[in-house]
């Protein structure tokens, strides 16, 4: 069995990625706002609307930048960036600022704000702060964030039962990606009701998938519609059941088919915000392939192909995390996801 060229998240990589995130999570401009104006009084700056998550070009990227920093702090509490992360979180996670974030969610016509992508990343952050290794201070930060966490959990529990169909796209509204991240939150927090709802939803949406048509990548993908569905099913199915389901989904994987899933996307212009998504596709595919391989016997030919594909995509994407701010404001989070999982 060939060993991966990328065995996991090293401290050197984590510090590199954290330095990138620290450079943008408090950078207010440039900024892309998805914002419902109920009246002229709602025309406000990013920081006025979002006291914590105002940086990183957009709300969700700032959230998963915070997740990257929390993961780094948990794994490497004595790293050269640890004290800066602690200072950022101490300044950010205050009752007043959390109340400001919550007030934004409770405005009229915000029901779809950051649904489901930003919700899922936020829940992963909330769970990360409570994980073993974060200590009492992590629990305190998570407790301060609890009102916003409860709001987002409630929204997800309301949304999933009425979402008759999945959203199969390579963009933020992809539902499989959100289910996987939200399941990690549900299991770590012991929210059995949410875990059961996610399981039922994933099986209803993707359980019958077979012989998938792989029309990807499209020119703006940063997620693989097919592989994210597979990872969502890996999160809810027992290992044996997942192996059977995945064999039906992509029966040619052991032979390296379809080739498009094994071939990193070409990124022609990293200063173009949507073309730059394709670096993210390469990173998220690496995460998916690794998650799929983890559910299989290491010697399984499918697992062998999956690990090789993950390495190929990582090698292609990792050199480009800081090529332009259009990628810099978010790609490092996906590098951590690929190297260390949810």
Keywords:
342 residues; mainly alpha; 2 domains
Tell me the layout of helices and strands:
Layout: H1 11-22, H2 46-49, H3 59-75, H4 82-92, H5 95-105, H6 117-129, H7 135-162, H8 175-189, H9 192-206, H10 225-236, H11 239-249, H12 277-294, H13 301-317, H14 325-328, H15 331-340
Helix pairs in contact: 1-3, 1-15, 3-4, 3-6, 5-7, 6-7, 6-8, 7-9, 8-9, 8-10, 9-10, 10-12, 12-13, 12-15
Pfam families: DUF2891
Protein name: DUF2891 family protein
InterPro entries: DUF2891 (IPR021365)
Compute the average pLDDT: 97
How many angstroms does the end-to-end distance come to?
A: 25 Å
Shape call: globular
Order of helices and strands: HHHHHHHHHHHHHHH
Number of strands: 0
User: What portion of residues belong to β-strands?
Assistant: under 5%
Please bin the fraction of helical residues: 55-70%
Which segments are poorly predicted (pLDDT under 50) over 5 or more consecutive residues?
none
- State the major sheet: none
What is the number of independent domains? 2
| CA-based gyration radius | 19 Å
Secondary structural class: mainly alpha
- Given the structure, what is the number of helices? 15
How would you characterize the overall build of this protein?
With 342 residues, this protein is mainly alpha-helical. It has two domains: 9-162, no CATH class; 211-341, no CATH class. It is 58% helix and 0% strand. It contains 15 helices and no strands. The protein has helices spanning 11-22, 46-49, 59-75, 82-92, 95-105, 117-129, 135-162, 175-189, 192-206, 225-236, 239-249, 277-294, 301-317, 325-328, 331-340. α1 (11-22) packs antiparallel against α3 (59-75), α12 runs antiparallel to α13 (301-317) and α12 (277-294) runs parallel beside α15 (331-340). The two termini are 25 Å apart.
